[in-house]
Write a structure and sequence with these properties.
This protein is mainly alpha-helical. It has helices at 3-12, 43-46, 55-69, 76-79, 92-96, 122-125, 130-144, 168-180, 192-199, 206-214; strands at 82-88, 105-107, 115-121.
């Protein structure tokens, strides 16, 4: 059963409560909640057999979503041909000592149009639900693919602090602003240093490049 059907069944159900049989019986009705439209099918996420450790599935959903949601219909799987999404771990000993990864995820190749590099904190990933996972991935793809900076609105996908919307409708609202470029404080990362490095007009080393590219990310 699709996500849309599941949500419709959930919120279209009417609860009737009768006290006695008099003419003053009380009737309580739950008002159905509108299920927001999306041009992308998220049914695979609702499948109980879906493996959320398949990190590349989130990339595929993002690519399809961008293509149907953005006016330019970008085909990011062809533009970004080198995609690497991976977990980062902390040991149980470090976790017990309180020394944990202080981020949910990060993007490491924002200024390279052909490459996508996203690291995910494994323990954090397993503490959030599927819509928050999707929001987290869109946030990092927002940095790495769209070169977005952070938003000032906690309800936006590009806000600096996760977790993100925990419901289907909440995710749809924020991702619509994300693709429409209508979120608060929209700005882009400065990649002039990278362009100078590629052209040979700026001399620096690779670690410094990666540090600069990562500093504005979760």
């Amino acid at each position: 059963m699709s996500i849309r059907k599941l949500i419709n069944l959930k919120f279209a159900f009417i609860f009737l409560l009768f006290f006695g049989c008099s003419k003053n019986s009380l009737v309580y009705e739950e008002i159905p909640q509108e299920v927001l439209y999306s041009c992308t099918d998220y049914d695979r996420l609702a499948d109980p057999n879906f493996d959320s450790n398949d990190l590349y599935a989130f990339w595929e959903i993002f690519v399809a979503d961008a293509k149907c949601s953005m006016s330019s219909s970008p085909d990011y799987d062809k533009l970004n041909t080198d995609v690497y999404i991976f977990y980062e771990y902390e040991s149980d000993a470090l976790f017990a000592s309180g020394e944990v990864l202080d981020y949910g995820a990060y993007a490491a190749s924002s200024c390279n149009d052909s490459r996508v590099r996203v690291g995910i904190a494994y323990r954090y990933w397993n503490d959030i639900n599927i819509w928050q996972k999707l929001g987290l991935m869109y946030h990092e793809f927002g940095h790495d693919v769209l070169r977005y900076g952070h938003s000032s609105n906690p309800d936006d996908i590009m806000h600096a602090t996760s977790p993100f919307a925990s419901t289907y409708n909440g995710f749809i609202e924020s991702k619509n602003r994300f693709f429409d470029k209508k979120f608060d404080g929209l700005r882009y990362l400065d990649c002039s240093w990278y362009e100078g490095y590629v052209s040979g007009t700026m001399r620096t080393n690779l670690p410094h490049i990666l540090h600069d590219c990562d500093k504005d990310h979760n």
